[in-house]
Amino acid sequence: MATRQTQSLARLMRAPAIILLLIWMIVPLGMTLYYSFLNYNLLNPAGTSWAGWFNYVYFYTDPAFMESIKNTLILVLGVLAITVIGGIAIAMLIDKPIYGQGIVRILTISPFFVMPPVAALIWKNMIMHPSYGVFADLARFLGVSPIDWFAQYPLLSIIIIVSWQWLPFATLILLTSLQSLDGEQVEAAEMDGAGAVSRFIYLVLPHMARAMTVVILIQTIFLLGVYAEILVTTNGGPGNSSTNLTYLIYRAARLNFDVGGAAAGGIIAVILANFVAIFLMRAVGKNLD
Amino acid sequence: MARAVSTRIKIGYTVAAWTVALIIFFPILYTVITSLKTEQAAISGFDLWPSFSLESYRDVQSQYNYFKPFMNSVILSLGSTALALAVAIPAAWAMAFSPTKHTKDILMWMLSTKMMPAVAVLVPIYLIFLRTGLMDTRIGLTVMLMLINLPIVVWMLYTYFREIPGEILEAARMDGATLKDEIIHVLTPMAIPGIASTVLLNIILAWNEAFWTIQLTTTNAAPLSAFIASFSSPQGLFWAKLSAASTLAIAPILIMGWFSQKQLVRGLTFGAVK
Amino acid sequence: MGSITLKQVRKAFGDIEVIPGVDLEINEGEFVVFVGPSGCGKSTLLRLIAGLEDVSSGQIIIDGQDVTSAAPAKRKLAMVFQSYALYPHMSVGKNIAFPLKMAKMPEEERQKRVNHAAGILNLTDYLDRKPGQLSGGQRQRVAIGRAIVREPAAFLFDEPLSNLDAALRVNMRVEISELHKKLATTMVYVTHDQVEAMTMADKIVVLRAGRVEQIGSPLELYHSPANRFVGGFIGSPNMNFLEGPAAEAFGAHAIGVRPEHFLMSKTEGQLPGTVGVAEHLGSDTFLHIDLDDGTHIIARAAGEFPISHGDRIWLTPEEGRVYRFDKEGLAIT
User: Count of domains in chain C?
Assistant: First the structure.
């Protein structure tokens, strides 16, 4: 495609981005790996010593770890279920002939642009607050006693907030995919006698399969890292009932100053994320050519 | 797909769609309404009617110096975007117009760095920031935000550049254009729409980033995401003031987001869905 | 000004050799056409001359200067691309002026040259439009305009007409030929269409798999093809090939007869057959004939020829119009 001159120039122009990302990836990750084998507490840096696998064993046997893994999974799967199913439904609804489609679209995708701390605070104070929230007003209106969401259902509350943030993403991407469905194909299916349900199962769903895969994979990457929502609402509690892996590691590092333990947790998080990443890379890679 | 449907069916769909859309949008709407109430009215039960009081907006500024984190957000998101572009435009140009056997692998690898969980490198980054004096500085956080969004920027630019036919650049070369001329007179003007949407998406992502901003700032460099997170307990800020602060924090990005829906899909899915 | 010499020019992409080694002499003012089936390396050869690709070995000399490793801009060549490659964000006038701007020509002189070129190409009324607002033929002319303002040593055309519809293609063909007469500048033109090659070229270079099969004037190629490939490629419809007893009668492994070189009779002749499809165009009649030995033949009769599907016919090749080829496909002279 090009001459040697342009090729050597191209190498020069690629270099800064590659070098930056290489450093960004290797240096901190290498340090994390190193720290994970140390007894290293910021409160007592002089007592730093080689720990071997101790941090991993400690992290693994900590009951909070198992609970955080369980919470992470529930959070990710719960949000995925709500956003994907809800996203398909809403995307199909918006795709129908409606008045003011553009505005409906804008309203629907808006929560995605709300920064996580704001989203969490809005829900915490305006919607779910046991005395002043809209849910409480609604409950009183219906004559039942208001729920104290973050005390009684902490994890569910966080799932609701995070789902609200990510539902627009799923909707927008599934809608984009839906709009690229060939109208003639649908009409051909109608001519072939396929009813609305069969058209959905045999045409619409397979057409959206790729977009759904992308939604699930990308959301998973972000959902594994949910942090600010927990920080401003439950602080991981009560107990550890709404602590996910990210939050657990944050607590070890920043509140307990346990560098070694947090690093070991970080390595575990990397391994977890890699499972998802491999699938995502394949899905995206196929589309490169 | 557009087929004539009876008005009755269309009205039915319209009512359903608007209901869903308003429910989803309600928390934002209610926040805006509450921000226009007095503190007293804000906690006196459900009421969609604002009292059109700008009192809370004034208080947010006078009591909490709101302008400072707001400016930090502006500086960090614009700065990190500019930095990312400076590094990513040449790289994307090279990969789009002078691809090698490894271009695809390099792109995939760049993407993979985006998948590294932030919390996994929290400890080393935190320590590095502490020891180099970058903690709570705008420059440190700008570089941080640039690094975490660089892969997306390179990817988006790459997919946009690839849509520019190589023959046009060759024509410029035949016409005697140097590389500088080629980039200034031909490539950049043609790539402006793509660059613009990349910038928009990157500003949105940087503005809303809420892990590193919270970890690496205290007061000086704290942008809105960290500022607002510090009011996790209502004692710090009352309902109406919280709403006013929130409204101001999300309004610019919300408006930007509305204008960049299409590009957003492409950027957030790394070109996998267009 | 405008002679181009290729000496043992070779190009390989990795392990794949696209052009094994070409020697070619293009004289000043000549209209040279590279023709061949797709993938024959004709565009690559043009891009090597342009400097858009590096040669793997060999030499390229333009006007006595070795430009083998010179950048495209330094070769004083202008190129018209298949996709026209106009700059979509610039007006027609700016497009045409771009190479002059790059050459840092003064504004006044630029304007003069652009106006002159626009006059030649009938683009004067369109100078302020953007390429997107033009028709295919007009875009093509803008691309040519951008090439001629530079007064290059030679023009390179890379399948410039392939994106135009059939009628427009004929017009542009004539326009480019006229331009060549007017400017008398060397032109190197790549096409897969042998009609373009025959109608425009002073000299045709027939390529196959990166190798030069034959170089010659259009009529030289028509009258004395060097081998079966050239015989089959030049001329429309294609030359018919007969093997077996019919060829042995001429002392050859195979013989080639052009469709227009058959005498046709409904009663007698050398090669009996049955008419399949008869295409009556008025000016010509093309007959698809299955000979009794199984060979499929296309024959052309001038004017109207009353015959229809299933009729018997006898063909006789015209005296002296039979091309003989040996086992390797080379012409026997």
Answer: 2
Predicted model pTM: 0.80
Asked whether residue C144 falls in the same domain as residue C55, the answer is yes
10-residue mean pLDDT series, chain B (274 residues): 70 91 93 84 74 80 85 93 92 87 85 83 88 88 92 88 87 86 86 87 89 87 87 68 88 86 74 66
Q: Nearest chain C Cα to B187, which residue?
A: C87
Q: Which domain holds residue C264?
A: 238-332
**Chosen domain end from C193, C215, C231:** C231
For each successive 10 residues of chain C (333 residues), what is the average pLDDT? Answer: 88 87 92 91 91 90 90 88 89 92 90 91 91 89 90 91 86 90 92 91 92 92 91 89 85 90 88 90 90 90 85 89 89 83
Q: How far is CA B165 from CA A14, A263, C155, in A?
A: 20, 47, 21
Same domain assignment for residues C326 and C184: no
CB C3 within 8 A of CB C62: yes
Q: How far apart are CA A84 and CA A89, in angstroms?
A: 9
Chain C residue numbers with beta carbons less than 8 Å from the beta carbon of A2 are 52-53
Closest CA to C193 of C323, C277, C82: C82
A23-124+154-288 CATH fold: MetI-like fold (1.10.3720)
What gap in Å lies between CA B169 and CA B186, rounded to an integer?
A: 7
Check whether residue C151 and residue C261 sit in a common domain.
Answer: no
Instruction: Summarize pLDDT for A235-285 with one digit per residue, the tens.
Output: 887 888 888 888 988 888 888 788 888 888 888 888 888 887 787 777 666
Q: Domain holding C286: CATH number?
A: 2.40.50.140
| Domain spans in chain A, listed from the N-terminal domain onward | 23-124+154-288
Give which of B98, B167, B175 to mutate to test C binding, by max C Cβ within 10 Å. Answer: B175
Question: What Å distances lie between residue A231 and A50, A77, A248, A256, CA to CA?
Answer: 32, 20, 11, 16
Whether C225 and C82 share a structural domain:
yes
Contact B167 C52 (CB under 8 A): no
CB B198 within 8 A of CB B267: yes
CATH code, C135: 3.40.50.300
3-state secondary structure C286-314: EEEEEECCCCEEEEEEECCCCCCCCCEEE
C85 close contact with B: CB closer than 8 A: yes
Which ipTM score applies to this complex? 0.86
Question: For testing the chain C interface, which of A1, A3, A9 should be mutated: the one with the most C CBs within 10 Å?
Answer: A3
Report DSSP letters for A267-282, one per residue: HHHHHHHHHHHHHHHH
Q: Measured between CB atoms, does B176 come within 8 Å of chain C?
A: yes
β-strands C271-280, C312-317 pairing = antiparallel
B66-230 — its CATH code? 1.10.3720.10
For residue C201, give how far its alpha carbon lies from the nearest alpha carbon of chain B (Å).
Answer: 24
